Amino acid sequence: xxxxxxxxxxxxxxxxxxxxxxxxxxxxxxxxxxxxxxxxxxxxxxxxxxxxxxxxxxxxxxxxxxxxxxxxxxxxxxxxxxxxxxxxxxxxxxxxxxxxxxxxxxxxxxxxxxxxxxxxxxxxxxxxxxxxxxxxxxxxxxxxxxxxxxxxxxxxxxxxxxxxxxxxxxxxxxxxxxxxxxxxxxxxxxxxxxxxxxxxxxxxxxxxxxxxxxxxxxxxxxxxxxxxxxxxxxxxxxxxxxxxxxxxxxxxxxxxxxxxxxxxxxxxxxxxxxxxxxxxxxxxxxxxxxxxxxxxxxxxxxxxxxxxxxxxxxxxxxxxxxxxxxxxxxxxxxxxxxxxxxxxxxxxxxxxxxxxxxxxxxxxxxxxxxxxxxxxxxxxxxxxxxxxxxxxxxxxxxxxxxxxxxxxxxxxxxxxxxxxxxxxxxxxxxxxxxxxxxxxxxxxxxxxxxxxxxxxxxxxxxxxxxxxxxxxxxxxxxxxxxxxxxxxxxxxxxxxxxxxxxxxxxxxxxxxxxxxxxxxxxxxxxxxxxxxxxxxxxxxxxxxxxxxxxxxxxxxxxxxxxxxxxxxxxxxxxxxxxxxxxxxxxxxxxxxxxxxxxxxxxxxxxxxxxxxxxxxxxxxxxxxxxxxxxxxxxxxxxxxxxxxxxxxxxxxxxxxxxxxxxxx
Length: 664
Description:
Helix content is 17%, strand content 27%. By secondary structure, it is α+β, with helices and mostly antiparallel strands. Strands 1, 11, 13, 16, 17 and 19 form a six-stranded antiparallel beta sheet that branches. The protein has a five-stranded antiparallel beta sheet with strand order 2-10-4-8-7. A five-stranded antiparallel beta sheet has the order 15-14-18-12-20, with no helix packed on it. Helix 6 runs parallel beside helix 8. GO terms for molecular function: triacylglycerol lipase activity.
């Protein structure tokens, strides 16, 4: 499921029946963080016109991946000003920053205004909690980045202001850094919402098996909790279980705030260590638990998921924020057993390798785009779903939408340029006015509702199909001139022209679908690696003959020798690797944080034409003799494209693995 909207809400069935009540002022002798007796008998939800009518657990609001790190701090104010401190790593720059806030328990929505370094913060996403308060968050990346990027490494403070501090228990500032000090990719995931005091649970899906002993492995969790009080022996607490084992029985102190309503908050972050308290001990003070946890002791080697269960037996804490920093990275957050995936929208873009050229039948209308009914996009399946996205999209009740714009022959310009489709397609693949009315029944625009985009692009910009034909019909094509250049020179110049167009495509997709996960797929090797495989009958030179006369009668004459030398095959393997490297470099340079490169050459290894593990690539097939008489033979468009196995076991498997599904 998608990390933005399709991650399933952590909502028990009783939530819909939660009662609503009016805010009740706390009396002078009320224990801080304790709801008035009339409100504490059972889990309840406070409702306002602006807030969600029922809390829906924690949902992903940010998921970043790369060489990154994070820092958080919270503050609960009795007066009108305070500070939030972020720890900046050396050489780091800000990628994302959010400010979160929670109103005081039992008092309804917040009042007044919050400022950060004197600038007002427009908090939104109001969510009712189960303790008569409301939770909020806002993206403050621009303001925080302007300060932190130019600040020296170390602790950097922001001035926090509240015009009506009694109505707010506090704020949390969480920052994600591009961190050059990190040696491996990891993910940082922020979840926001309102958990039920009676209990909620969710599962983190990881991109691969975890090894708790590996030096690069990290599994860290931070919780943000408001209206918690543990001073003077008060037994007010939340419990957390990880993979069925108790992590803590004392979460929810006020160690980032002060012992008074309107200042009760905590988050694992600045000044805290990932110290796991004795799991069975009740709280003895505000620092019984710093709400920053190391989850590695709770996972086993080979695990691909981490399950977290929270509960608040004292019925007066508000767990409204969670941060996870993990390697292997998080790919999804799901609730087991929830029957609905959507809403979720997936659009497949690109060229013939995404369209499924070479694998009939094709979707109607059967124009030269050749969109195959067995293309990899028809087989994409996200974690938590029991069917492919295409299958789910056939049932409107699932909320799943599946779009298929990929077109054989597409070049980078066919994605970028409005009104410049390919082969009878009147629209560019990224035009926002795409719909089924344009002639493709599976047309969907890439827009703000899009959760997942996949794309292959660049092969036609490098003229790979034409060069394969050129090498097949030209003795020693490496030294021959192609469009006045050697093929090495032609390929180098084509890649140089392509690179900025790739950056423009990634930026355009992200601009139109800012919350989408964008997977850029590489190209497989078409020719095998070993000389023995390269010398197979399909690839070695053979003579093609045609009848001399136009009527197809007369003497049989040779047209050309068709085939590939070992040197030519090795050259085309090198050009494929160089093209993949150009694509990967542009993803890493210009798409970091929102675009991921998914290589497929390793998956296809041994499955090339004549590959010893079984072919996933169609071999060379010539066009009909009549069409080539009198000129150089041309390859049928199906030649040197993935077959059904290549689409399924090569491309679809690579996408599904990246999305978090194991591949069997």
